[in-house]
Inverse folding.
């Protein structure tokens, strides 16, 4: 009995109001999803959370303007020159840059960082190796000229911006050679260490990472540019949208990054909260497998494009988190096509199906990852397909599960989201409009391959576009490519992603870029 | 009984126990391993991502040993587990053992306090409703129990957050601790409550405790519902027995009849009930952990499973399995202590 009384007493004590502490003035507290943060090594990072981490803790050779992507400016490279044949790039390395470790940044670090990407050959390495860099030739193709000059030689006279944009991606981050090599084990170029550690020169430096729990960045007092006002950025892994919203309203976090439409709507009218939006590069699409006997009929592909209620999904399901976009290049990219010829038109779709001899309709399946907004989109599509007699069976699955099936070309229809790997148009042309080898054991397996779409002619056009040096001409080539692609391809491209963040009204200066590797905390004040 | 034969009997028993544990573990590992290989998720994907080139993909596949026949893969894994190596998690880039040591204490703290709540509220509630069958409290406890079984925990958790955190401000929000205190106490045991006391940081102890109250109570509510219903039926069974009548006739005080005689006999089966409900809390708290952003084992296990991070899944399974087995052996042992018939 005594024990019970004690416990009761303890419980009563607990009800004494808990004094709430708000976020510290010099610390930015953010709720985000960190479950895709699986490595801290810029040579390996290829996911959203990782790209954002590297963008704030490392310096890259070159950057692009977040509001006008076509403007490229120097980062660690102050300036550069390109030889007349378009093959040799000379980069002048900025003086006076210091790593967080205190080491000086020189051409050695730049050469080492890029060579390291090629030698380690992790997932994102193709962004560099597509220029002919390989472990065998890397000592000749990326070389130090003097302490502040680096020379790089690529294998084809590509459009120069293609190479430059590739260097703006995460793998263009410069690592501290001395520090990394000090942690090398069995010739791994410090990979085992840097996976969970840090060797950069960015405005913030890495402090601590607890996987799927939290990530802490501290101000880098050695930073060469404008030093952040914040002392610390604290990112907390919170998956639940409603939890993020509660914390934000209470002021226990400054920024919520992953709110669902229902919670965004719920915050409207709250004076303490500001909602901001920025179009991101990812596009939502349906992939129609050309191994399916119905889907390979051109009229069927065309009909399906008329059987989606684009407006309805944009308004009710995405409600602010996406905008209608029907070409493979997202808005903001060079040569992006801003024409949306398709809308829900059941009569037209029926006519097309009749032309294909399928006026009675048919049955297909769609592999759908069971998370929002994918599920709701799938259900909406199921409804509109049914209006033309097409029975769509939704096969729900976890993300990795549906992806495994998709990569093996065993789907009928796959509903997915594709984000560009770098800011040059070739990134999406390469995957949506190129398929050099459609055989089952092809070397390259772009999205066109995954949907078994054999396109030798279009592949040639895409290859020509990436070699065009004149930007205006090049843009024109992509516009034409997209127009053709839009009509005939087995891709029903539907929407472009919009990132929505909710901030406390006192938070200013969080830069949202068109990609996760251009979301910057450097100028945040609160 | 001669000392020698007693020794023989004991060692035979120990051997039997040991064999049972070994077989259980082997079975557990084999089944988990097979499930991990049969699920239609490509484990290489979790390592290299969707966009890796074919060469990178193939290299990773070979490095992970996935090109070998299934039985070979299993024996290689078994061998390294026996040497104490659980492998590296592909999601966290850290050794699985290190991950588990980090996430497990968070879950233990939660499960421990939840079970305490379940015991100290559930048992009295069960006893009282058995004694005053059909009474007001009995009806209340039935409703509470029914809700405990049927309400989805995430809904209840959100509701509790809305009321006690957002509206009333009585309790802190999600997370194990306020960010002010994050990283101040260096982990010794991983249990925040213990570590903060060891470091003499009472303010942190208080903060961590406040953070525990809501998730632990909610989680405990469900075991409370189970424990109180079980207690009630055990008690009703005992109160019908003749020795109760005898005790009452003898003039023993009523509270002593209830708590001393009847409850004393219920305590034995209740040990199993409590042990089982504790065990199920260890992996069954995924939803609570999600809503409260509680970095525990349930969340870790689920996340690993959905990414086919098999080292992490197998490692966590072994831990949960060991605890289940340990709790079972312990409750068997308690049986022997409390119940002469089981000796």
């Amino acid at each position: 009995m005594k024990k019970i009384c004690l416990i009761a007493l303890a419980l009563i004590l607990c009800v004494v109001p808990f004094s709430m502490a708000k976020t510290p003035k010099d610390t930015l507290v953010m709720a985000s999803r960190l479950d895709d943060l699986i490595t801290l090594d810029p040579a390996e990072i290829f996911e959203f959370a990782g790209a954002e981490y590297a963008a704030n803790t490392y310096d890259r050779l070159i950057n692009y303007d977040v509001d006008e992507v076509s403007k490229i400016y120097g980062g660690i490279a102050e300036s550069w020159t390109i030889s007349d044949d378009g093959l040799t790039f000379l980069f002048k390395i900025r003086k006076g840059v210091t790593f967080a470790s205190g080491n000086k940044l020189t051409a050695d670090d730049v050469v080492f960082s890029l060579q390291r990407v090629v030698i380690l050959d992790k997932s994102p390495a193709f962004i560099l190796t597509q220029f002919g860099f390989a472990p065998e030739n890397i000592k000749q193709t990326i070389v130090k000229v003097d302490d502040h000059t680096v020379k790089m030689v690529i294998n084809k006279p590509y459009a120069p911006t293609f190479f430059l944009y590739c260097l703006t991606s995460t793998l263009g981050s410069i690592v501290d050679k001395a520090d990394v090599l000090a942690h090398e084990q069995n010739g791994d170029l410090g990979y085992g260490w840097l996976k969970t550690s840090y060797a950069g020169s960015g405005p913030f430096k890495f402090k601590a990472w607890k996987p799927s729990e939290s990530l802490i960045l501290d101000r880098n007092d050695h930073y060469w540019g404008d030093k952040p006002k914040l002392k610390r950025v604290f990112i907390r892994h919170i998956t639940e949208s409603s939890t993020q919203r509660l914390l934000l309203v209470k002021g226990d976090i400054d920024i919520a990054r992953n709110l669902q439409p229902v919670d965004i709507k719920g915050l409207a009218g709250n004076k303490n909260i500001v909602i901001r939006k920025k179009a991101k590069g990812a596009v939502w699409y349906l992939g129609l497998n050309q191994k399916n006997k119905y889907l390979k009929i051109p009229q069927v592909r065309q009909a399906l494009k008329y059987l989606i209620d684009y407006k309805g999904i944009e308004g009710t399901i995405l409600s602010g988190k996406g905008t209608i976009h029907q070409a493979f290049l997202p808005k903001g990219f060079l040569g992006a096509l801003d024409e949306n010829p398709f809308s829900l038109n059941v009569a037209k779709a029926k006519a097309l199906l009749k032309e294909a001899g399928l006026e009675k309709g048919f049955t297909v399946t769609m592999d759908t990852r069971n998370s929002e907004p994918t599920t709701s989109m799938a259900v909406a599509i199921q409804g509109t397909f049914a209006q033309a007699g097409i029975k769509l069976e939704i096969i729900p699955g976890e993300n990795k599960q549906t992806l495994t099936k998709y990569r093996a070309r065993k789907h009928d229809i796959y509903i997915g989201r594709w984000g560009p790997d770098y800011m040059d148009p070739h990134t999406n042309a390469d995957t949506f409009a190129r398929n050099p080898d459609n055989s089952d054991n092809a070397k390259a397996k772009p999205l066109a391959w995954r949907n078994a779409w054999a396109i030798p002619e279009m592949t040639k056009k895409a290859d020509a576009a990436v070699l065009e040096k004149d930007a205006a001409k090049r843009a024109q080539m992509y516009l034409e490519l997209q127009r053709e692609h839009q009509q005939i391809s087995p891709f029903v491209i539907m929407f472009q992603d919009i990132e929505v963040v909710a901030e406390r009204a006192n938070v200013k200066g969080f830069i949202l870029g068109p990609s996760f590797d251009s979301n910057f905390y450097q100028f945040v004040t609160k | 009984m001669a000392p020698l034969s007693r020794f023989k009997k004991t060692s035979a028993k120990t051997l039997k126990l040991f064999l049972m544990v070994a077989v259980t573990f082997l079975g557990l590992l084999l089944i988990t391993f097979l499930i991990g290989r049969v699920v239609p998720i490509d484990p290489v994907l979790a390592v290299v991502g969707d966009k890796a080139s074919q060469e990178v993909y193939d290299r990773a596949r070979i490095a992970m040993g996935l090109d070998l026949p299934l039985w070979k893969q299993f024996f290689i894994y078994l061998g390294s587990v026996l040497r104490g190596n659980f492998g590296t998690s592909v999601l966290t880039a850290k050794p699985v053992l290190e991950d588990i040591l980090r996430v497990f204490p968070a879950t233990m703290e939660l499960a421990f306090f939840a079970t305490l709540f379940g015991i100290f509220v559930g048992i009295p509630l069960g006893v009282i409703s058995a004694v005053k069958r059909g009474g007001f409290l009995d009806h209340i406890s039935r409703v509470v129990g029914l809700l405990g079984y049927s309400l989805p925990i995430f809904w209840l958790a959100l509701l509790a957050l809305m009321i006690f955190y957002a509206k009333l401000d009585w309790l802190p929000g999600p997370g194990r601790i306020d960010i002010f205190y994050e990283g101040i106490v260096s982990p010794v045991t991983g249990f925040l409550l213990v570590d903060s006391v060891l470091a003499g940081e009472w303010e942190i102890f208080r903060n961590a405790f406040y953070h525990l109250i809501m998730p632990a109570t909610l989680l405990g509510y469900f075991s409370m519902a189970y424990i109180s219903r079980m207690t009630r039926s055990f008690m009703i069974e005992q109160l019908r027995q003749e020795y109760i009548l005898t005790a009452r006739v003898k003039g023993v005080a009523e509270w002593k009849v209830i708590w001393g005689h009847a409850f004393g006999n219920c305590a034995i089966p209740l040990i199993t009930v409590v042990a089982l409900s504790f065990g199920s809390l260890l992996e069954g708290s995924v939803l609570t952990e999600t809503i409260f952003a509680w970095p525990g084992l349930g969340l870790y296990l689920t996340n690993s499973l959905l990414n086919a991070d098999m080292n992490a899944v197998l490692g966590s399974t072994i831990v949960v399995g060991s605890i289940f087995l340990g709790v079972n052996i312990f409750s068997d042992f308690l049986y022997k202590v409390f119940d002469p018939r089981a000796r």
Remarks:
- Residues 471-488 of chain A form the longest helix (18 residues).
- Chain A touches chain B through 60 residues (CB under 8 Å).
- Chain A has 19 helices and 17 strands.
